[in-house]
Amino acid sequence: MSSKIAVRTGRLGRSVGWAAALAGLIVLFGGAAASRADETPAPIAASGANGACLECHSTSAEAIEVEAADGERRELTAYGTEAFAASVHGRMACTDCHTDIQDNDAPHQKVGAPVADCATCHDRLWEAAKAAGTAAERPALERVVKNAAAYRESFHARPDADHPERAKATCTQCHNTHTFNVPAAGTPAHDAWRATIPALCGESCHEDHLEDYSASVHGVAILEEGKSDAAVCSDCHTTHQIDNTSKDPTKLLITSNCGNCHEAEYKTYRATYHGQVHSLGYAYTAKCFDCHGSHDILKPTDPDSSVHPDNRLETCRECHDGKKLPLATAGFVSFGPHAHAGDFERYPQLWIATRFMVALLIGVFAFFWLHCGLWYYREWKDRRDGVPSPRVKVSELPIDEKRHVRRFAAGWRAAHLAFALVTMTLVLTGTAALYAETAWARSVVGALGGPANAGIVHRVAATLFVGIFFIHFVYVMFHLLVRRRGQFRWFGPDSLIPRWQDFIDCYQMFRWFLGMGPRPLLDRWAYFEKFDYWAVFWGVNVIGFSGLMLAFPNVTASLLPGWVFNVATLVHGEEAFLAAVFLFTVHFFNNHFRPDKLPPPDIVMFTGTQSLEEFRRDHPAHYNRLVEEGRLEAFLVDAPSGSFITASRVLGLVLIGFGLILLVLVSIGFFSTV
């Protein structure tokens, strides 16, 4: 070795210092190679601009050991000419990056010599391309520049804790200085290149993680079984925008990245409460790696896996630890975080519940939307044909023409208003979670201060909802069982309990719609008004009890199996959708948008009264009964003042407007999931 060094002393004096600078020649990012078709480098010849360098810095030459400027002895950096020619920078001259080398006689071993700056060089080339109007022809360069910008903001670019003068990870630690290239996707060379990524990350910095990864399902798949589509470090952590894994955005991003491979599992995860709030930007909920692990993921059948049946309760208790969250109980184990409604064999309860809810939705909307459509057509046709509406000759009655009929007492009106407000709040906050993937849901939740605050608002509104319902129920029962005991006819015309006459009225209504008979004479409570009333009882019980199950999972799981959570989540969301769409279409139409009610709003639920003419048109059987029994006078009250009517109209329009906005948002959410 020493004799050969002596022979080459002349060349060494001119060229040995190239090594210090050559160590900084960097191939910055994988994105540059993804489009190598348009920037394929020309092979380099061992002469010309780089020839002098290759005399010492080529692997074809025998290794040379020299004394560096700091007194340490080391071998010159060497690389293969063929590998360099095939790299992304293969047609560049050495001095394009090693700008401190002026000529062959310049001193190579310089302390503090400038290091080649990858990002600055690519930025300069990109600016030049844009100025020359050739940027569109350089897509690979554009990706490199974007990757460089992402790297500058990444965790790797921050100062290292032990060596603050340098970054945690530099370009050259990931990209081989002179030979980096990403082979074309789908080729054996590309598969082999992907298999090197775990070792690249692990051996240079993350040794412990590499050990765990190598034994995981992902590591075994790609390192031992040769499955190139198995996840490697960059699939989960990304390449250049890597950030601290303790940060919320990083946790959310990694979970989303799991879905890039596990699409079906990610879709079912997003349908759970955990997945819904994750989609809304809440990081403090169960995510993929919280249950499955991160680098040491094992098959669920492996006894050491965190999601093995024997280990699931312990895994659940990592979050539901009895401190911040109630302690997980045995029923948690049978919860299906990836339950699929189409799989009857594995999830029969969810399969049945899904089909029941679909049938309910189709049945309710098919009947009532048909009812609305025919009703609108009939009233529109009567108006077009000039068919007169029933009118009351008030002048022939011994009453003041300006008096109104009282329909609702103050307590009923207050309860209705409160119910409307909390219901709209529940619809807004609840469907934001149900359709968490939509842009409007994220905006609404963001305006409320995040998923945690939105959840608090939802639960407060739910408590008020149940409270109003309970107070109403207690009042009605007290009124009927105590104050009017023995006087009230439970199935009489003044009762809200459905009776046979309601079915007759509905049948006759359809006959009138179709021009096959006269309009039925509806009594105090029309059949569709009774449906509205009792639908609340159904909704409170279905939505309320399913909501309680989800709000107190530890209690639920101590009494019931975990699949109840899957069914409760489904029923809670689908019933809320049914209630919202029914309210803002059918209920709004019946009371505000059919031709006889135009222009909206109908303010009877705000003023509590109707004119005699309107009352006679909407409830003729009740009107006739009161006249025949001589009790009409008892129902008459003074007409509301003009200012009260104006205020009622404004309030009605505001509520209708907000309801229609909610209908649009819910519709957007629904169709985005179809």
Provide the residue-averaged pLDDT: 87
The share of residues in extended strands comes to under 5%
Biggest β-sheet, characterized?
A: 3 strands, antiparallel
* End-to-end separation: 74 Å
Structural class: mainly alpha
Helix fraction, binned, reads: 55-70%
Principal-axis shape: elongated
Give the low-pLDDT segments. 1-47
Number of helices: 32
The largest beta-sheet arranges its strands as 4-3-5
Number of strands: 5
Rounded radius of gyration (Å): 38 Å
Describe the structure.
The chain is mostly helical. Among the domains are: 2-174, no CATH class; 252-328, no CATH class; 408-488 and 502-526 and 540-607 and 641-673. Helix content is 56%, strand content 2%. It has 32 helices and five strands. It has helices at residues 2-7, 9-15, 18-22, 31-34, 51-54, 81-85, 94-97, 118-132, 139-152, 171-174, 188-195, 197-204, 207-214, 217-224, 233-237, 248-261, 263-270, 273-279, 288-292, 312-316, 348-385, 410-434, 439-447, 451-483, 500-513, 527-551, 553-559, 563-593, 604-607, 612-618, 620-629, 642-673, and strands at 65-67, 73-75, 404-406, 609-611, 636-637. The chain has a three-stranded antiparallel sheet. The two termini are 74 Å apart. 30% of the residues are buried. Mean pLDDT is 87; it is low at 1-47.
